[in-house]
Amino acid sequence: MKNPVKKIISIILCVSLLAGLCVIGNAAGEETADGELDYVITSPYDGVDWDNWKQYKASLHSHTDASDGGQSIEESVKSHYDLGFQILAITDHAVIGKQWNEVPDMVPLYRLFKFERTGMRDPIVLTDEERDAIINGTYESAERKALEEQLGYELGGMMEVTGGCEANGATPINDCHINTFNCEFGRARMGIYGDFETVVEACEAEGGYSFLDHTGEYVGRWKEDEWRAYEPFYANKFANIFLKNESCVAFDVNSTRYDSVIWDQVLKLTIPKGRNVPGIAFSDSHQKGEDNDWAFTMMLMPELTMEAYEACMRSGAWFNVGRVDTLYLGDEFNGTGNLPPAVSRVYVDNEADTISFTGSEFDNVQWISEGKIIAEGKGLTSIDLDDYKDELGCYVRFQITGPGGILYSQPFVTMAEGVEYTSTVYETFDTSMIFRGLSRIFDVTIGHTFIAILLKRILWNYIW
After folding, report:
1. Which of 80, 83, 120, 312 is exposed most, by the fewest CB atoms within 10 A?
2. Comparing C-alpha atoms, which of 253, 270, 271 is closest to residue 262?
3. Nearest-10 crossing angle of helices 232-244, 197-206
4. Domain of 210?
């Protein structure tokens, strides 16, 4: 007789695999006279004024020797400026970013752990004059001028985004990091393995916003880990975070091999529940130079202001660009040195059920729905949803590749009239919940004793 425990486990696993699927009921839908479905396409770019808005190159996650980087704040800012960036947020581990001419409150213990990079040296920041010149675009940079000539337009200055932090500064086993903005909670806190939830919830409570960093570090980043990217547990864990926290605005799609795969699994769960989850790309650089150009976002905004930037972050109106993508471009590909793929305009026609775009610097287009490539071709810049109704799920996104790397669009929600789109999202339980509880008990019972406060001040330079 089969072991009853194994039998129960088998049943649970089967149910788990089925529970996270995006279920489409009444698949036939309401077809028109010519046999086509009538789709409602919701685009994250709906509010963009393509004739008057501009695209701004943004670096929203990078490091300096204020935590574990090998570049100083001065070197990082000047390097990003040389590389043509127009928005920069320095987001060090457990350190709240300040103006580029100010030394942030650092965590001595963390810098000591990364001594081979930081050298525990005094941080070097910009002078007031350098900061002003970089922000207003008058700082002299031969590299920036050469890039402007190549692009055919002026880049202007580089906007300073403060208040950023990579929260869960250091977690055991694998990194479980979250980028937060306008949130003090992440300061000096090291974090618990698997605990993304506490930081996101705290950031929401403070009125800030966040996005999830390189979740593939937590799920599994190596080729042999591919099966883990499809495990329902992880998709459900992240889906719950987005469904419960509107201020968590994006999911990293480019840092590790299977980040975009996990993203697709999450989208299958959240979109039927009414939540589209934008992707995001960033360099996560620790060294100056081309590392800072590893990945970035192209933000669609009416003007280069903090108000426009924060509105953009909460809308998802940007494109994600990576110089590498080991899954889609191979392990050896690196597009650094070439102009990256670019999109100049997106067209959505809800009458014709089509999505199309114009762009440059690409030689292949892939249209992806629910993790599967449903269409591919060099000139396939337009897609008629009715041509792919058998493969199409609750969303479609496109990505383009060329000598300069890869560009990922945000997902377009595609709902056919007469079709019921549903998904089952279940609560997940892991060891982080236990350690989260123990940490809170420690903070309440021992965390404010004299010895604990002294250690926090000496090692973390902060008392929470």
Report:
1. 120
2. 253
3. 10
4. 40-423
Give the Cα separation of 186 and 95 in Å (integer).
8
Cα–chain center distance at 171: 19
Q: What token pair was written down for 194?
A: 């698997």
- Which of 186, 125, 134 minimizes the C-alpha distance to 160? 134
Domain assignment present for residue 146? The answer is: yes
Q: Which structure tokens are listed for 380?
A: 């396939």
Domain count within the chain: 1
How many CB atoms are located within 10 Å of the residue 343 CB? 22
Whole-prediction pTM: 0.91
Q: What's the CA gap between 193 and 174, in Å, rounded?
A: 7
First-to-last alpha carbon distance for the chain, in angstroms, is: 56
The C-alpha atoms of residue 317 and residue 46 are separated, in whole angstroms, by 8
- In this prediction, residue 30 carries a pLDDT of 63
pLDDT tens profile 383-429: 999 999 999 999 999 999 999 999 999 999 999 999 999 999 999 99
Q: What is the pLDDT of residues 80-135, one digit of tens each?
A: 999 999 999 999 999 999 999 999 999 988 889 889 888 999 999 999 999 999 99
On whether the CB atoms of residues 167 and 185 are closer than 8 A, the answer is yes
- Whether residue 308 lies inside any domain: the answer is yes
CATH assignment of the domain containing 177? 3.20.20.140
Smallest Cα–Cα separation from 408: which of 337, 325, 352? 325
Q: Which residue matches tokens 């890869």? A: 406
Say if strands 318-322 and 342-349 run parallel, antiparallel, or are unpaired.
Answer: unpaired
On whether the CB atoms of residues 169 and 110 are closer than 8 A, the answer is yes
Name the β-bridge partners of 315. none
Give the position of tokens 């996104």.
397
Best CA proximity match to 310, nearest among 163, 156, 137: 163
Residue 319, helix vs strand vs coil = strand
Angle of helix 142-151 relative to helix 73-82, nearest 10 degrees? 30
CA nearest to 310, candidates 239, 302, 322: 302
Look at residues 270, 214, 280 and name the one whose alpha carbon lies nearest to residue 395.
Answer: 270
Whole-angstrom Cα distance, residue 222 to residue 444? Answer: 39
Residue 28 domain-assigned? no
Q: In angstroms, rounded to a whole number, what is the distance separating the alpha carbons of residues 319 and 156? A: 20
Which residues neighbour 211 within 8 Å (Cβ) at sequence distance 6 or greater?
60, 178, 179, 248, 249, 250, 251, 252, 280
Strands 354-360 and 248-252: unpaired
User: Taking the CA of residue 289 as centre, how many other CA atoms within 13 Å lie in the half-sphere pointing to its CB?
Assistant: 4
